[in-house]
Specification:
Layout lengths: L2 E5 L3 E2 L5 E8 L2 E12 L6 E7 L4 E3 L7 E6 L4 E6 L8 E11 L6 E4 L3 E5 L2
Parallel strand pairs: 2-11
Antiparallel strand pairs: 1-3, 3-8, 4-5, 4-9, 5-6, 7-8, 9-10, 9-11
């Protein structure tokens, strides 16, 4: 069974930086996409950034120029470098992956449990 485990969430001051990490493990055949979503209670989950196995990236408009996503395919890890953090970045950040798992047909979506990022002075 596939698991995604996030780390790095913390309390940080406005203007500060934070780096999130996510490790994928399990019976993974191939990973197509890894990325990050975030969600505030009562609101829809929104895309923060994603990256494919060939390095193609996609960012949410509100984080462009401030956040950078990267990955290590060999380690099955994805990272999110967050700079110039604002209070409105406060949310639970979820790691996700679209991948092929052993014994299952087609590509499947998997989610981590989330890590809290709080931007406050």
């Amino acid at each position: 069974q596939v698991r995604l485990v996030e780390s790095g969430g913390d309390l940080v001051q406005p203007g500060g930086s934070l780096r999130l990490s996510c490790a994928a493990s399990g019976r993974i055949v191939s990973i197509n996409t890894m990325g990050w979503y975030r969600q505030v209670p009562g609101k829809e989950r929104e895309l923060v950034a994603s990256i494919t196995d060939v390095g193609s990236t996609n960012y949410g408009e509100s984080v462009k120029g401030r956040f950078t996503i990267s990955s290590d395919n060999a380690k099955k890890m994805v990272y999110l470098q967050m700079n110039s953090l604002k209070p409105e970045d406060t949310a639970v950040y979820y790691c996700y992956s679209k991948l092929i798992v052993f014994g299952r047909s087609g590509r499947n979506d998997y989610w981590g449990q989330g890590t809290q990022v709080t931007v406050s002075s």
